[in-house]
Recover the amino acids of this structure.
């Protein structure tokens, strides 16, 4: 018996079911069971995440179940996982990444640059809102929480002209037809690890690791490790305007990263190249470059706002 811990949202269950079927196909002798676990982030669906505070809002309770041996495996969206993991746990397996881009959905199928002046766009992410305001400072950004269906419902109810969601989640739910515009990673960087799943297990659990190892996608692992090292060096959570995206071309890892003011008035953005065999080194070096360029002042100010 292999017990998978997962959030109870439709998207989380879809992702965990996909992993479950992969394991059962590869190891037909193993029975796999899903255990739904409610996280703090699920219990407060209406408050903006930046106001709730703390890291690991969507993973802490699942990690506790892992440490208590109530489950054997946690399936996470990597963008929800803090850069620092609890002692005794690790992320050794990264299945192949889905589309990493953000997706814009609008009522009339218009792209961001075609929206009428001053209309409202919903997002629950400071990273998305700061980049959106940098592109279109005239728009009104409205805080948006809830699962994918809830967010689409807000769009359909008439109080929003558009919303921004992760393309990966829409694809996994069979809703890619709703996308009006894919936001290019050239000018709209995604969240750390966006589109990627992370399989978290106990560090001493070789048996479970051996069952899962076949799911690891090396290129995904390399790029996500670089992005997470960048996040860790900046001491950032998933609720600050930090973004990074890594790509691989043969023996070259390219990592783009940014730190932004909340209102989008200033965006610090750099890219760096490095060897794929040490992705963390590239992530740390890129973070240091941004800190030297003024990112520390921006982050200190944002953290000060959230703690006051």
């Amino acid at each position: 018996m292999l017990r998978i811990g997962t959030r109870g949202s439709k998207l989380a269950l879809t992702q965990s079911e996909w992993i479950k079927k992969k394991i059962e196909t590869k190891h037909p002798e193993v029975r796999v069971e899903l255990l739904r676990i409610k996280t703090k982030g699920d219990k407060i669906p209406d408050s903006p995440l930046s106001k709730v505070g703390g890291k690991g809002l969507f993973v802490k309770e699942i990690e506790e179940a892992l440490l208590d041996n109530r489950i054997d495996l946690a399936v996470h969206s990597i963008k929800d996982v803090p850069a620092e993991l609890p002692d005794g746990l690790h992320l050794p397996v990264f299945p192949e990444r889905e589309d990493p881009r953000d997706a814009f959905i609008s009522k009339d199928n218009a792209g961001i640059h075609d929206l009428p002046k001053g209309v409202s766009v919903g997002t629950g992410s400071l990273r998305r809102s700061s980049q959106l305001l940098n592109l279109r400072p005239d728009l009104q950004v409205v805080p948006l929480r809830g699962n994918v269906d809830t967010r689409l419902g807000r769009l359909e109810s008439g109080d929003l002209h558009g919303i921004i969601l992760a393309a990966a989640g829409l694809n996994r739910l069979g809703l890619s037809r709703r996308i009006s515009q894919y936001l290019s990673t050239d000018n709209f960087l995604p969240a750390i690890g966006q589109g990627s799943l992370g399989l978290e297990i106990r560090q001493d659990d070789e048996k479970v690791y051996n069952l899962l190892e076949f799911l690891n996608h090396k290129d995904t692992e390399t790029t996500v490790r670089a992005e997470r090292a960048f996040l860790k060096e900046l001491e950032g959570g998933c609720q600050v305007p930090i973004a990074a995206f890594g790509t691989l071309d043969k023996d070259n890892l390219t990592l783009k990263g940014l730190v932004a003011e909340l209102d989008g008035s200033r965006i610090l953005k750099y890219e760096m190249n490095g060897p794929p065999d040490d992705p963390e080194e590239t992530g740390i070096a890129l973070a240091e470059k941004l800190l030297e360029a003024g990112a520390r002042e921006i982050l200190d100010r944002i953290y000060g706002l959230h703690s006051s």
Summary: The domain at 102-183 is CATH 3.40.190.10 (D-Maltodextrin-Binding Protein; domain 2). The chain has ten helices and 13 strands. Residues 99 and 171 are 8 Å apart (CA to CA).
